[in-house]
Amino acid sequence: MAAAVRAGGAHRGVISVTRHSTALKPQYDAVIIGAGHNGLIASAYLQKGGLKTAVLERRHVLGGAAVSEEIVPGFHFSRASYLLSLLRPHIYQDLELKKHGLKVYVRDPFSFTPMLEDGVRGRPPRSLTLGADLAKTQQEIGKFSEKDAKVYSDFLSYLERLACAIHPLLDAPPVDIPGLTQGSLRKKISALRSLKPLVKSGLKLGKNIPDFYELVTAPVMKVLNRWFESEPLRATLATDSVIGANTSPNNPGSGYVLLHHVMGELEKEKGAWGYVEGGMGGVSQSIACSARSLGADIFTNRDVEQVLIGQDGSVKGVVLTDGTEVHSKAVLSNATPYITFKQLTPPDALPEAFITAVDQIDYTSPVTKINVAVDKLPNFLAAPNSADGKPGPHHQCSIHLNCESVEVLEEAYREGLQGRPSSRPMIEMTIPSVLDPTLAPPGCHVVSLFIQFTPYLLEGRRAWTDEDRERFADTVGKDILTPADLERVFGLTGGNIFHGSMSLDQLYLARPLPSVADYRSPVKGLYLCGSGSHPGGGVMGAAGWNSALKVLADFKRL
User: Fold this and answer.
1) Contacting residues for 115 by C-beta, under 8 A, at least 6 apart
2) What DSSP string runs through 151-216?
């Protein structure tokens, strides 16, 4: 990467944090722990439903992992999450997020994979660029395989058929198994409505049900090898099957992660991903602005120490680390299930068997996020910068480094399993300032590096030291967030960006556990509303929306 790098220091500024003078009240209908996007969305829908709601965020900035921070003076970074796509369309419309300041730059092209190879006859190394223009994309693929270029459009149609069928499941809680199997006949009949999204998905899939079953259960390479023969295309597509997940393209279940990353849409364009103006904190601020307009009280620097449980075993509110008590009939936790049940809930309020099950939830993370401020555009041998220094189309893409072949990805995964940071890590590089000029001074840029595979503990036993971080980052950048740092800064247990692995045993009816898949905990009045519950991390806002519906339904019964 031909660019000067300025190291991030101790400075930690924040952009777009609106100051509000609302005082924290001693009593609310509902209290939400954590102002991540799901918590903020839940607060908006609870307010729309008539419940006075407070959101309490322990950090100085709203958004959870969707935040913008000024790590280097003048440079504003999406410090953790960095791309937007899976924000549910009905939430975007219901909360009028565009009106409340959300602006998104849709990328086209969207994927660039430069080859690490010698050029032929004086030409630069090859590269693969994918975008919305099918003819241009097929021309790019044709550099490696004419056969692959011809079938690429059929492959996209295949993925779209499967992804569209999942949408009804994202926008509704899982099937109400307890309601269908327990209680009165009236309750069982009422619970039949929870089957509607599942039936709708099945009808949408129709004859494609076997294809869907294969994709979500098989190694993604089983599918990709059947469609394509060129290694750069297979490897580029395979990156979406492992991004954020501690898995290999040759492991069963990796196909679902690929599907998970093509399910979104932006500005009604299916599968599109984009940059939020001002960084990812922009989407959190727009949600918070909408929620406040509906009457929600949202606070930063309010660290919840414990959930208050009454003598009758039901929730009574929360107590903060400074001793302040805030009483409520419902508490929604946007923290991970581990933090919710192991740190925030009194241990004697939960069954021992349930605590044992919580301990078994997998939070393994292979991710290190590195943020870099640069004083000129990165330059690639496969696509040299123009003489005027202006960005090329490839600079707006997700830039896949060390992704020339699936074997490179496999080797990076194997090294991570052995407790070593990958010597040739899989890197997804983005330069959002190419489209958003608000992020960096003129002529300069912010660069995000999403890197795999790095273990939580080195060699399975040793914590990362500053020297370890610097040694690893010397090849890529600064402001290093290893899995342990992601846990410490953002409360992501194990550093897992999804609030728990997106493996088949931790999805839908089993997310995070079968006994709490409906967002209700064993403690009456305590709910999960974060990405650790259905439909999981990345599907922006669905858990907040679904959990709010559960709370509102329970309040109607009181």
Assistant:
1) 125, 126, 127, 128, 232, 382, 404
2) HHHHHHHHHHHHHHTTHHHHTSPPP-HHHHHSS-HHHHHHHGGGGHHHHHHHHHHGGGHHHHHHHH
How does 316-345 read in b/e, with b if 16+ C-beta sit within 10 Å?
bbbbbeeeeebbbbbbbbbbbbbbbbebbb
Sole residue written with tokens 């209680």: 183
Relative to beta strand 426-430, strand 398-401 is antiparallel
Cα three-residue angle 361-366-371, rounded to 5 degrees:
125
Question: CA-to-CA distance for 238 and 112, rounded, in angstroms?
Answer: 14
Residue 155, token pair as written in the block: 């492959």
CA-closest candidate to residue 372, choices 12, 2, 7: 7
Tokens of 59: 């950090």
**366-381 burial, b if ≥16 CB within 10 A, otherwise e?**
bbbbbbbbbeebbebe
CA atoms of 319 and 304, how far apart (whole Å): 6
Q: Could you report the per-residue pLDDT of 39-72, keeping only the tens digit for each?
A: 999 999 999 999 999 999 999 999 999 999 998 8
- Asked if the bond preceding 75 is cis, omega within 30° of 0, the reply is no
Share of the chain above pLDDT 90, in %: 69
Strand 265-266 with 315-320, pairing: unpaired
Q: Please give the model's pTM, rounded to 2 decimal places.
A: 0.91
Q: What is the pLDDT of residues 141-176, one digit of tens each?
A: 999 999 999 999 999 999 989 988 888 888 889 998
DSSP state of 406: H
| DSSP code, position 342 | I
The answer to whether 281 touches 101, Cβ cutoff 8 Å, is no
| 16 DSSP assignment | S
Nearest Cα to Cα of residue 337 among 362, 374, 316, 314: 362
Q: Are strands 330-333 and 30-33 parallel, antiparallel or unpaired?
A: parallel
What span, in angstroms and rounded, lies between the C-alpha atoms of 337 and 186? 31
